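Field: sequence (string)
Field: structure_tokens (string)

Example rows 1 and 2, in order.
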Amino acid sequence: MDERDLLREAVRLAVANADAGQLPFGALVVHGGNVVATGVNTALRDQDPTAHAEVAAIRAACRTLGTLDLGGATVMSSCEPCVLCHSAAAVARVGRIVYAAAKEDVPDLGYPATLDPTDLLGRMQAAARGLAPEQIVHLPTDGAAEPFRRYRQGRAAA
């Protein structure tokens, strides 16, 4: 699978998560050319603001590989990782993060709040982007907005 195929898989996970009533984010960890773990956002279900897709995928990859060091791994994400997820990837020594949808393209989902470039999280996000432009790569992907549409559609029907 190439990076676009892997991003489409992350988007597929995000769509399935949105259809399940959870926040529309999915991620996978690729190491040695193989998908070693996946994750979805379960913050609503678990009442855990740190239960993000990338964090779940990193945790699962570490367990699967029996290591705390994911050097050489890539996180493929349906959406640009927030500063929490970017930090988790840095702590695990993930080499790259590739994402399908930019933070600016995320509509108001109710939670997490829409990114405000002037608040603390917005400034931290901008700093993370600036500190590691070679590590975090936006690869626009067809269908990247679908998880958001499905999530909003589900909320409107509820």
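Row 2 begins here:
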Amino acid sequence: MKTKKVNKGLTPYALLAIGLASLVGVPLQAEETSGNDEALFYPQPPNEPKLQFLASFSSVLDVSSRNKGFRDFVFGGKENEGALVSKPYGVAMHDGAIFVVDARGNGWGVFDVAHGRSRVVRPSGGGSLKKPINISVDSDGTRFVTDTERDQILVYDASDRFLRAFGEQGQFKPVDVLIMGDRLFISDVMHHKIHILDKLTGETLSSFGEAGFEPGQLYHPTNLALSPEGTVYVTDTTNFRIQEFSGAGEFIRTFGAAGSGPGTFSRPKGIALDRENHIYVVDAAFENVQILHSDGGALMYFGAPGNERDSINMPTAIKIDYGNVEHFRKYAASNFEIEYLVIVASQFGPNKVTVFGFGSLRE
């Protein structure tokens, strides 16, 4: 397949946004606030706001009580007391609920925003998890969870009941699972490949990629994302880049490199695309999220480590969701119209899951 040439130049909007903070790792500042109830927007005015921080979720009370004073009274203000998950990695959104994998807790937590409740799922028996990493939820609620200690993908129904497991001994070490129709795409961090499985049977249909540094080769691929056109984006973590492949596994293009400037990476992990092909990439070392143009050029970035209500600390995964916006409008400024949600999981810090809204201010 003919490869696309990636334009490394920045668009006028990119130059405007990046001019606010020229070093990666320094966050774009939100509007100054006088209290916790005031809105936080990105980028900083006078630029037009594109993102608003909506909410963060960590405690079992976060979906039923937004009163910080009450939570501090119950848990003493300690970071991990009452945390639904201990060490998050993967995150998914389905039917008004956020699913976040607990790599240390042998299961996943569910922040059910639509119904104002939360729960923890720790499967037992044949469906028990040892080191779960990522989760994808199908349209019917079926959960697909990767486990890098069992070296399998485990499948659960919409009621969290174990159905089956895919993967024989030595077949792969799966990190992420991407659903595309009746197929699953699996990133294999041990063999530096992407495997395509039948979604129902787990049969391997094909694989692509091999260890290396050339375009189309992979070194420790971690996270996966689906574009609106049906192509697959792979975070090629140890090569410090993103690669795009067709649904059949044909190489299309690569962009990014090791560095500390816009459009470069240090420890890229989670990746997601919106309907306009803007690319969101989480960097666990910079502890922020870069937004890239469809040609790979940097547009802006947001997020920073810390203990603030919008902080992200060693982020691992990111998802974009259009179908559950209604459940988060209550967190948005009254004049901010949300187009889609941006959901980020962090392994450390007070915020295990941080939700932002992409949109625009109404006049």
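free_text_note (row 2): Residues 1-36, 66-80 have pLDDT under 50 and may be disordered.
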